[in-house]
């Protein structure tokens, strides 16, 4: 083996060093820690010790020459393994350490703060207005008024304020919403006139493609063309999860401001099933089936005129709470059109929560570059036959999987779905979310 | 249940602690023979002896530093700084040593220390017997700080501070010593650090305070109640850890926040609460967060008009509350 | 081994120390110097960012360590006490863990190197703040007194510069008021980074302050481990038996710069240092041991080889271990788990 020694940094602000005198010549033996060269810098004169025992093969710098820190200065032949390189820390948390009990911090890999609601990153503009004219009236409105006006679709300009100096207060907005007197003009009212767009399609017209529609079209074709799609479905008893969610949702919403849906529970089960079936977290390449190291789960979000799939990176390292907050933030920002390029890249698997619209089964198109996409369909209370042949009313939900048949066969796919079903059915309330 | 004032509550709690755990040692200036300048430890030295009730030299840095060493060695010292205004020489030992003992030794050594000190004004104490010091210390991770306002909280929090395995700064508002009386449950009990107390529920405004001022805030809130305005008053009790959830829950309900404290405004406790609420509950706020606090001068002067200008009053608090409710 | 050596050194006054104990002190001194040097080597190899040397302190620390009762006494040292730490039971491996800032270090890699801590050995954790540890030592001694534990004492050390700090004075005063079982050993190496004694104190003989505080004081040659042992053992026994505190001053010299970030040629000359090198305690004691037949050249060579081997093994073993993880930042702030806004 051969080790190349570089000019060390002999002081905090030092950037170069001069080889004053070689203490060894090529062919000489040198012991580990034995001085083999004298180096000087403007702060310090030092003998530099050898990092290994061996024979000097080559000296790369002449006496008197000044080189930058990190420049190779000598090469040593040696037998034993070098061990750790000079300045890099050992790469793994090794078996050898009787170091700090590595109790995992629950839920989080490192306690990085969960993605905060959009307001926290200091952007001055917060909520998009409900309609162009109401944007003007929101100027001077407090954050609570803006939010409530948006949520209840109330036109603040049309309210007489009861606050100081005629200010419209949050209570005023709530009162107006309750009495139903003021409603913001909706998008459809103005749709009658104007150009035919994806948001307002007029029969008998051709809507030009914008970049979003063009990209969606291209990606869908690419995916369907390249990946032979196969499809499977399981029916899952989500009664336990449903109950758990019901128990936690008010407190969770109060604490975080986000709604608690079944999605984070489902995602938690998905990441665990992906760990058990790593081929589902893979992609087909010319070199072979690349099994991804990270588990970055995308959430397919259908907006009125667009389909976006923001990604939760390292989703397997998040608890249900962590997933709920991360998903809540992404969905929130997706709806406000505030996703960044980073948000939608790097996904390795996708989840599609279809159920809100009452869908019972669906055959989604795989995100190009992934091996599968799994859905949550609507939850229906059904009579089912239990293990002891009785009839019980249970919350049932279908889960559908489209899979890339180049990567996985039915064996893996059905194994994955069966595993997912088992995990979801086995999810009982354990502590608070 | 006994009725006692705050200074009696401190005394009774300390006595019980000394009696029940002989690792407990009281130390400070004049705590022994004199029994503390407010008579909190009167006659303790007769019962527990000079080994456990120590009249120290006038040397605040080492009053705390020696207590740190005792705590590292397994005793449960309670170091007293005669007036909070005298605590500055001990800053090195409190912030640089006590707060860091567990952290720097990665848990091998700990510092179960209580530092007690009377603070606050309204007693014509002038520049060096009236200051509030919590803002200087609440910034420091590794340190805990409590400032109870009621006798029952004094007992519960002092017991919790004494039991706490980490250093706790226990602040006693000297004006409330004899002014505030209340019922105190018998027997040993603790109140967990980090839990605020909603003294009065309301729906139109949240007022957060602690110490003497929480009593005045409550008075002011009751005045508003008589006029049909509903104000919620929260007694922080614990400065660090601070009860973030109780504050947020209240603000999400009332949508308006007024923080009232005796300490200077700039960089006071109200600054951190404001930042936290703005960060976590911006979209629930229907009015700017407001802080009623002392003007930014070093301390209240001795002359009465100077002290009055520095300090607030129930009337001033009520005025601020009315303005915010009406906003 | 020339017989004429005995004329240069007076006959050996052992103060009750056996040959084994003398050899143990010498080994401690050799090991201290070897480990000290290893820190600088690793720094020059780019493996550790900081090293702080203790050359010149080998005798005072070996002698003091010999007077320390393991398992009973408490040590409150400062950051130049490598030899004392080794002498009371810390291993080269533990020392190197702190140099490399590995997770397995007593301090979890949090402190600067040389900030030793070991509950098992009775070595109190300390920070980089000069004199802040002195009241802690006094507090520990007060705890011994309150618990009526005779037979135990606290040995607290510091450099000459630290004796200027207010907390040093307050501590000495308190220790004397309460006749505490504590020995204050000042390792006077004449320099506080670049500040010489003449700028540090009005009374250059530190031990003379003892009378001012109301306790016995003594000065001795800190280059002589046996003389050190005698002074420290006597003071520690006094403390253990309820005789109260003592202020000891051991004179030595700081041969190296303050640390790897210091260039001592900016404030003293090579000649100054060379003049003091003549009294280097390690070769000095080696000569004494040889002259008195306690060790032979062969014994010494074997001992040095053994110490080097031990140091190399410990270096490799410590270096192979991992750094703390990022998540470890949040551990052990309070007793419970870290939470935001707490």
Quaternary state reads: heterotrimer
Shape of chain B: globular
Major sheet of chain A: 8 strands, mixed
| Low-confidence runs of chain B | none
Strands of the biggest beta sheet of chain B: in what spatial order? 3-2-4-5-7-6-12
* CATH architecture classification of the largest domain in chain A: 2-Layer Sandwich
The separation of the N and C termini of chain B measures 43 Å
- Total helices of chain B: the number is 13
- H and E order of chain A: EEEEEEEEHHHHEHHEEEEEHEEEEH
How many structural domains of chain B? 2
Helix-and-strand structural type of chain A: alpha+beta
What structural class is derived from the secondary structure elements of chain B?
A: alpha/beta
Gyration radius from CA atoms of chain B, angstroms? 20 Å
Radius of gyration of chain A: 31 Å
Examine the coordinates and then state which fold CATH places here, giving the name of the CATH topology of the largest domain in chain A: Chloramphenicol Acetyltransferase
Please name the fourth-level CATH homologous superfamily of the largest domain in chain B. Thiamin diphosphate (ThDP)-binding fold, Pyr/PP domains
Overview of the structural elements:
The complex is a heterotrimer of chains A (433), B (327) and C (342). Chain A is of the alpha+beta class. Chain A contains eight helices and 18 strands. In chain A, α6 (263-276) crosses α7 (320-335) and α6 (263-276) packs across α8. Chain B has helices at residues 6-20, 44-48, 60-72, 91-97, 101-104, 134-137, 151-163, 176-179, 212-226, 244-254, 269-281, 304-310, 314-326, and strands at residues 2-5, 24-28, 53-55, 76-80, 114-119, 144-146, 168-173, 181-184, 197-200, 205-209, 231-235, 238-240, 257-264, 290-294. Chain B is globular and about 60 Å long. Chain C has helices at 5-8, 19-44, 58-66, 82-87, 92-100, 133-146, 166-177, 197-200, 209-213, 225-240, 270-277, 281-291, 297-319; strands at 74-76, 154-159, 182-188, 191-192, 195-196, 217-221, 246-251. In chain C, the strands form two sheets. Chain C has a five-stranded parallel sheet, sandwiched between helices. A two-stranded antiparallel sheet of chain C has the order 4-5. Chain C is globular and about 60 Å long. The A-C interface holds A 8-12, 32-33, 43-44, 46-49, 51, 83-84, 86-87, 89-90, 92-94, 96-100, 102, 105, 109-111, 113 and C 38, 41, 44-47, 49, 102-104, 108, 260-261, 263, 312, 316, 319-328, 330-331, 337-338, 340.
């Amino acid at each position: 083996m051969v080790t190349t020694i570089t000019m060390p940094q002999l002081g905090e602000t030092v950037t170069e060093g001069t080889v004053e005198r070689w203490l060894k010549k090529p062919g000489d033996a040198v012991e580990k820690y034995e001085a083999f060269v004298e180096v000087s810098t403007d702060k310090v004169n030092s003998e530099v010790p050898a990092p290994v025992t061996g024979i000097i093969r080559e000296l790369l710098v002449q006496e008197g020459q000044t080189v930058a820190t990190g420049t190779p200065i000598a090469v040593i032949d040696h037998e034993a393994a070098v061990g750790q390189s000079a300045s890099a820390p050992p790469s793994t948390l090794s078996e050898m350490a009787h170091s700090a009990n590595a109790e995992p911090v629950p839920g989080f890999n490192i306690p990085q703060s969960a993605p905060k609601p959009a307001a926290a990153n200091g952007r001055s503009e917060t909520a998009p207005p409900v309609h162009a004219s109401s944007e003007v009236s929101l100027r001077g409105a407090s954050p609570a008024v803006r939010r409530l006006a948006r949520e209840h679709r109330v036109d603040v300009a049309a309210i007489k304020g009861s606050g100081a100096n005629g200010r419209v207060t949050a209570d005023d907005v709530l009162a107006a919403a309750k009495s139903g007197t003021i409603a913001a003009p909706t998008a459809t009212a103005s749709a009658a006139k104007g150009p035919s767009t994806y948001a307002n399609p007029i029969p008998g017209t051709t809507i030009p493609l914008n970049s979003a529609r063009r990209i969606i079209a291209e990606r869908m074709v690419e995916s369907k063309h390249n990946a032979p799609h196969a499809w499977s479905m399981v029916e899952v008893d989500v009664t336990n999860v449903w109950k758990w969610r019901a128990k936690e949702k008010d407190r969770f919403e109060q604490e975080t401001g986000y709604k608690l849906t079944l999605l984070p529970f489902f995602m938690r089960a998905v990441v665990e099933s992906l760990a058990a079936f790593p081929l589902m977290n893979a992609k087909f390449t010319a070199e072979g089936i690349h099994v991804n190291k990270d588990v970055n789960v995308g959430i397919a979000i259908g907006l009125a005129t667009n389909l976006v799939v923001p990604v939760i990176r390292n989703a397997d390292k998040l608890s249900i709470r962590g997933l709920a907050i991360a998903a809540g933030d992404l969905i929130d920002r997706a709806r406000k059109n505030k996703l960044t390029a980073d948000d939608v890249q790097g996904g390795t698997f996708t989840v599609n929560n279809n159920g809100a619209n009452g869908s019972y089964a669906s055959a989604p198109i795989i995100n190009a570059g992934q091996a599968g996409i799994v859905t949550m369909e609507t939850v229906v209370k059904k009579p089912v036959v239990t293990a002891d042949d009785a009839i019980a009313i249970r919350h049932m939900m279908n889960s559908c999987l489209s899979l890339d048949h180049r990567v996985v066969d039915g064996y893996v796919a059905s194994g994955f779905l069966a595993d997912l079903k088992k995990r979801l059915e086995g999810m009982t309330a354990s502590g608070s979310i | 249940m006994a009725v006692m004032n705050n200074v009696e509550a401190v005394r009774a709690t300390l006595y019980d602690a000394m009696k029940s755990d002989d690792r407990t040692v009281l130390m400070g200036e004049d705590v022994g023979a004199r029994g503390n300048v407010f008579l909190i430890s009167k006659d303790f030295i007769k019962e527990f002896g000079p080994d456990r009730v120590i009249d120290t030299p006038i040397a605040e840095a080492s009053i705390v530093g020696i207590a740190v060493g005792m705590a590292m060695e397994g005793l449960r010292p309670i170091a007293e700084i005669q007036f909070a205004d005298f605590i500055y020489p001990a800053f090195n030992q409190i912030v640089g040593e006590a707060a860091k003992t567990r952290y720097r030794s990665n848990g091998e050594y700990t510092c179960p220390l209580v530092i007690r000190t009377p603070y606050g004004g309204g007693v014509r104490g002038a520049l060096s017997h009236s200051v509030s010091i919590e803002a200087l210390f609440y910034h420091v991770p590794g340190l805990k700080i409590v400032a109870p306002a009621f006798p029952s909280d004094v007992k519960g929090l002092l017991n919790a501070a004494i039991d706490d395995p980490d250093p706790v700064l226990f602040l006693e508002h000297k004006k409330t010593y004899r002014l505030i009386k209340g019922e105190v449950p018998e027997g040993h009990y603790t109140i967990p650090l980090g839990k605020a107390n909603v003294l009065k529920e309301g729906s139109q405004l949240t007022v957060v305070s602690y110490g003497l001022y929480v009593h005045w805030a409550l008075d002011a809130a009751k005045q508003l109640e008589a006029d049909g305005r509903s104000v919620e008053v929260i007694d922080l009790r614990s400065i660090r850890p601070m009860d973030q959830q109780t504050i947020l829950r209240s603000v999400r309900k009332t949508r308006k926040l007024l923080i009232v404290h005796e300490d200077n405004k700039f960089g006071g406790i109200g600054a951190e609460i404001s930042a936290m609420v703005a960060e976590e509950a911006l979209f629930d706020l229907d009015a700017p967060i407001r802080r009623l606090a002392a003007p930014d001068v070093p301390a209240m002067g001795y002359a009465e008009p100077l002290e009055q200008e520095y300090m607030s009053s129930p009337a001033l608090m009520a005025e601020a509350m009315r303005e915010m409710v009406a906003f | 081994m020339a017989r004429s050596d005995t004329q240069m050194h007076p006959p050996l006054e052992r103060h009750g120390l056996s040959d084994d104990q003398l050899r143990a002190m010498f080994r401690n001194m050799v090991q201290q110097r070897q480990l000290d040097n290893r820190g600088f080597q690793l720094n020059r190899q780019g493996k550790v960012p900081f090293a702080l040397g203790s050359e010149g302190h080998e005798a005072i620390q070996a002698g003091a360590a010999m007077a320390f009762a393991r398992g009973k006494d408490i040590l409150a040292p400062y950051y130049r006490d490598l030899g004392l730490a080794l002498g009371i039971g810390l291993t080269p491996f533990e020392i190197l863990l702190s140099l490399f800032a590995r997770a397995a270090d007593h301090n979890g890699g949090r402190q600067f190197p040389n900030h030793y801590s070991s509950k098992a050995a009775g070595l109190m954790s300390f920070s980089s703040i000069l004199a802040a540890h002195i009241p802690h030592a006094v507090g520990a001694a007060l705890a011994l007194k309150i618990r009526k534990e005779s037979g135990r004492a606290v040995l607290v050390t510091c450099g000459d510069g630290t004796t200027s700090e207010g907390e040093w004075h307050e501590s000495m005063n308190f220790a004397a008021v309460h006749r505490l079982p504590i020995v204050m050993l000042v390792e006077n190496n004449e320099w506080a980074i670049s500040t010489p004694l003449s700028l540090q104190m009005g009374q250059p003989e530190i031990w003379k302050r003892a009378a001012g505080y109301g306790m016995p004081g003594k000065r001795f040659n800190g280059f002589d481990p046996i003389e050190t042992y005698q002074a420290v053992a006597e003071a520690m026994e006094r403390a253990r038996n309820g005789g109260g505190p003592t202020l000891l001053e051991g004179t030595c010299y700081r041969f190296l710069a303050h640390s790897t970030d210091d260039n001592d040629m900016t404030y003293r000359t090579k000649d100054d240092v060379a003049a003091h090198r003549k009294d280097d305690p390690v070769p000095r004691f080696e000569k004494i041991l040889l002259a008195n037949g306690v060790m032979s050249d062969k014994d010494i060579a074997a001992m040095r080889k053994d110490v080097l081997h031990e140091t190399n093994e410990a270096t490799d073993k410590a270096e192979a271990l991992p750094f703390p993880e990022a998540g470890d930042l949040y551990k052990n702030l309070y007793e419970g788990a870290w939470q935001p806004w707490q």
